[in-house]
Amino acid sequence: MLMIPGPTPVPEKVLLALAKHPIGHRSREFSDLQGEITARLKWLHQTQNDVLILAASGTGAMEAGIINFLSPGDRVLVGCNGKFGERWAAVCQAYSLQVETITAEWGKPLDPQQFQATLEADRDRAIKAVIVTHSETSTGVLNDLAAISQFVKAHEKALLIVDAVTSLGATNVPMDAWGIDVIASGSQKGFMIPPGLGFVAVSPKAWEAYKTATLPRFYLDLGKYRKDAAKNTTPFTPPVNLFFALQVALQMMQAEGLDAIFQRHDRLMRATQAAVQALGLPLFAAPGAGSPAITAVAPTQVEAEQVRATMKKHYDIVLAGGQDHLKGKIFRIGHLGFVAERDILAAIAALEASLVELGYSGFTAGAGVAAAASIFAKG
Predict the structure, then answer these.
(1) Domain 11-255 has what CATH class?
(2) CB atoms < 10 A from the CB of 207, how many?
(3) Which one is the CATH code of 258-378: 2.20.25.100, 3.40.50.620, 3.90.1150.10, 3.30.200.210?
(4) Where are the domains of the chain?
């Protein structure tokens, strides 16, 4: 039972779609399939813009989102409050971009006012892009993308490039309404399918920047994908069976509806947070900054890795560990994608039993399950 931020659980309908015999990727059947998928992807991104599909991970999608619209020496502003924000800064440095970071302590959200101050101070409009991780997977923090986007729009020149890998399909990311120029995401998160596909949504403003961008690119040249997507095809061989899976998953998501999807993830987050606190375990994310995709827990009286090992050994439930300097200090409970209230209750019950097994007694038996159930009862 996967309770991690990716790969996430895959619905049976989607698994069965994966088992279909492949079709030719230059066939009329595949073209029709891609046409349907593209329309549904635009619905999910809440956009009229291009949404392109890559055979890549979320990191590949983000790298494509950076290198297609910038040139060596361009000044970029990168928000860093976790492993993935720092990764995008490293990608930019690898491509000889001039990187300036806005940072926050891991576990705390980025301060939109710092973006505002830096952007307003850029009198010459030299900042070419602002790069933000919406849901910082490493810490379970959701950054205030809506506020940051307003300051980027006021700057007028800078592109807003967003890592929405664990936020798209879990919380509201309205591309057109917020004026986001590039959104990158990956298939193994809110999309509810296995790893292997990356998605990049691109605004007209970003395409204008593409015309003069000079960073090297070939396989990740989004211009090629855009040209072929207009004909419902791909420039390179796609993972056909993942397209079958994506078709079914997007159909399921559209049947549930965006508001219902967002409300479900918010409910699962609140229930998980309430349960963890009822067990006397500290949340790692700052109050009010939790992500609807994942809850990070920072235990002080029991070792995080022992919790994870016990959960897996006795209950076959997999939790995520900490990354970089947080390794061994936190564990993370995923509640993203194909996850229901039943899954949260099962995971919390197993967590309670694991804590007892490890000799932790800082809670009343059943307190975690009761706290989660109370949230679910309220809706």
Answers:
(1) alpha beta
(2) 17
(3) 3.90.1150.10
(4) 11-255, 258-378
The predicted structure's pLDDT at residue 313: 98
pLDDT at site 151: 98
**CA–CA distance, 69 with 79 (Å, rounded to integer):** 18
- pTM of structure: 0.97
Radius of gyration of the chain (CA): 21
Segment 130-174, tens digit of pLDDT: 999 999 999 999 999 999 999 999 999 999 999 999 999 999 999
